[in-house]
Design goal:
Blueprint (H helix, E strand, L loop, with lengths): L2 E4 L6 E4 L2 E4 L7 E5 L2 E5 L1 H5 L3 H9 L7 E4 L6 H13 L3 E3 L4 H10 L11 H12 L3 H9 L7 H4 L2 H14 L13 E3 L5 E3 L2 E3 L12 H4 L4 H13 L4 H15 L6 E2 L2 E2 L6 H14 L9 H13 L4 H13 L6 H4 L14 H21 L4 H11 L6 H16 L7 H9 L10 H13 L5 H8 L9 H8 L6 H30 L2 H5 L1 H6 L8 H33 L2 H8 L23 H14 L1
Parallel strand pairs: 3-5, 4-6
Antiparallel strand pairs: 1-7, 1-10, 2-3, 4-5, 8-9, 9-10, 11-12
Helix pairs in contact: 3-4, 4-5, 6-8, 8-10, 10-12, 11-12, 13-14, 14-16, 16-18, 18-20, 22-23, 23-26, 23-28
Length: 613
Amino acid sequence: MACLKLGSKSEIFYLYGQSWLCSTGLPSDVIIEIGDASFHLHKFPLISRSKELERFMKDIPSDSEKSILELHDLPGGAKAFLLIARFCYGVKMELTPSNVVPLRCAAEFLQMSEDYGEGNLMIQTENFLNHIFGQWTDTLKALKTCEDVLPLAEELHITSRCIHSLVLKAADPTLAILPLSGPSSVQSPDNSEMWNGISMSLTSKETGEDWWFDDVSSLSLPLYKRFMQGAIARHMKPRRVSGSLVYYAKKHIPSLSSFQNGNSSKSNLSEADQRNLIEEIVELLPNEKGVTQTKFLLRSLRTAMALYASSCCCASLEKRIGFQLDEADLEDLLIPNIGYSMETIHDIDCVQRMLDHFMIVDNDDADSTSNNDIVEEERRIVGNCQRATPMTKVADLMDSYLAEVAPDVNLKFPKFQSLAAVIPDCARTLDDGIYRAIDIYLKSHAWMTESEKEQICRLMNCQKLSLEASTHAAQNERLPLRVVVQVLFFEQLKLRTSVAGWFFASDTLENSTTLSGNLALLRNDGNTTHNNPVVAFDHMKDRVSELEKECLSMKQDLEKMMKSKGSWNMLLKKLGCRLIPKPSNPKASKPCRKSKIAPDAVTELEENVVAVS
């Protein structure tokens, strides 16, 4: 820490109660009162250094035995005036980064200029300030003391100069150390550098981008805000700006982070101060997408709601989160409802607004990249895989979110439907997630009518259910009968398509004379296992056998369900289909399975099911 030593005399002041007395042996002729403290001094040393004190002394009647002067408005108070008294008497004193700003302001207040003695306090403090601006730590200490001497520190531009110096050093860490050169640089007895009597303790700063985060987090909010505004004005990288803002917010608002660098983060701020802080932080956050972590934004939103921050602050956070909703976690989305209505446990409307913001940004991105579809397709082909898009991630996130909020009995169907319907059908590779959410909602809202159940089931695409989900849906008594029939139909349709494709491939292999001639050789050739069409055909037949078993199992499940809900005739009659009549002579015809559907009935069934879907 820089230190400038002034004066040469030994200490002559001592404290007696609330009074400072002078041990020069001469009786004091002036008493200066500042706050609760009083100073018993002599006029001559004071008026020889200060124009303002000289003027005050002239206004005091000369016939009074002791002059009493009140200086309650002196910047820095009694602590600063004690140093001024030492300076006027030539007593040893030290200028440090912690006292130079109050002394500079007090010297300005008392007009201690060069007209009242060479090397007066104004020029001494000003020169010392200019030198400590070369060091990060000393400048930071000086800045913290500016708040105690406002507004004079602002009028003298001390605050702005400190902030400007700190911003330059934060942008370029190499400037955080004062370079020492020239013949006047000497070595002090304690091995610290001296510059014209100024002791400089040089400590190197780390060059990481976040080395200054913790230092500036000790500033008060008004000073920190001005520092960050200066950094933004100098075009500091948005990621560094965001990193500092996040660090500062976590340090002063416990609800944002329980621990900071392994230490418990405690705040002495009131709720009003915390509310003001988070509103200021949100206002300073960069607008660039992805610069600020989504987790921090969501926690900030929850905290802002709990502190009843302004609607503008909450709306700004919702918009920022919406822009990068694909990076959010489910647990952070479960924001408790603290509004006045509190109809639901979680704030569904807030998530709906964030999702709407995401859809707007996603549509804009899709329009701007429409000309690059061919390039993206080539990349997917070369990579042999398709990376999950932001829309796909958000679709999965919303399905999981709906499943979490579905058990809430106060969640109305229109609100559930509105949130689920925002996601386009093409965004989901599988509809298992939305099916699970629908099933949970139906279970928690058993009083729904059949019409409402069919309406909510339209949110999912039965053709995009996995085999496991389809099997569960086929046995789900909560689903409407029409939906169950759709699920079974589409599963059989998939099975028929797969079997037809495999049999077509087998016919092609059997008609190949070249392949038939080398059949035995290919079967025994262990080196061509991966590209062997005969081995592939054997696998095909095994798969067909497995699918036939699955189909038979599904039919048995359907028959069981029909027995509980109605006969096949009622179902087919409802769908407008008919059965093949049994022949009069069973022996004269081939045996057929019970309730086998005629081909034209299958066609009608397909049309009806597709129409339903």
